[in-house]
Design a protein that fits this description.
Its EC number is 3.6.1.9. The active site is at residue 69. By secondary structure, the protein is an alpha/beta fold. It is 33% helix and 26% strand. Strands 1, 2, 3, 4, 5, 6 and 7 form a seven-stranded mixed β-sheet that branches. The mean pLDDT is 95.
């Protein structure tokens, strides 16, 4: 069997690939995730996903390497992972009662070519109270997640509805990723 590598240390991406019953190994890429040039959110996630995959694929050229990057976008502004609880609260206030997009760039590099794509999911939040925001922040859950929330955790209660791929919001558009890996010959 050909080697499949996830170029990510994300526990959520690991769980999703395990859900698909795939045999893979994890080799985090440890790249600089800053985008120094001006890019659209779509271009930014695609570029970061490619950089992550390429950093690993350069050392494993005969393997299939998956790189991914996920961001939350509200009114054309990228909301990354909050650095402080205050920043998390500000992000959640922005998202409260509004719609936003979750974008995941995916790069699959293989001996048979590559697949690069961006998956976009629209998420609608209920109006949140200050108590809900602070109770959620007190759990610590929002601190390592883009947009300061994880749909698969307690923040599921904030989501009114979504349009698109649920797993994309978790961190990896699973079915499309698996189909692309197989299309490339894995």
């Amino acid at each position: 069997m050909k080697q499949l590598i996830l170029a990510s240390s994300s526990p959520r991406r690991k769980q999703l690939l395990e859900l698909a019953n795939l045999r893979f190994q994890i080799l985090a890429s440890h790249i600089d995730e800053q985008i120094h040039e001006t890019k659209s959110p779509e271009q930014a996630v695609q570029l970061l996903a490619y950089r992550k995959a390429k950093a690993v694929a350069d050392h494993y050229p005969h393997s299939y390497v998956i790189g991914a990057d996920t961001v939350v976008v509200y009114q054309d502004n990228i909301l990354g992972k909050p650095k402080t609880e205050e920043e998390a609260a500000a992000m959640l206030r922005m998202l409260s009662g509004n719609e936003h997009h979750v974008l995941t760039g995916v790069a699959i590099l293989s001996p048979n070519g590559q697949s690069l794509f961006v998956e976009k999911t629209k998420v609608f939040f209920w109006d949140l109270t200050e108590e809900e925001i602070f109770d959620y922040i007190a759990t610590g859950e929002p601190m390592d997640k883009a947009g300061a929330y994880g749909i698969q955790g307690r923040a599921a209660l904030f989501v009114k509805r979504i349009e698109g791929d649920y797993f994309n919001v978790v961190g990896l558009p699973l079915s499309r990723t698996v189909r692309e890996v197989k299309r490339l010959g894995w």
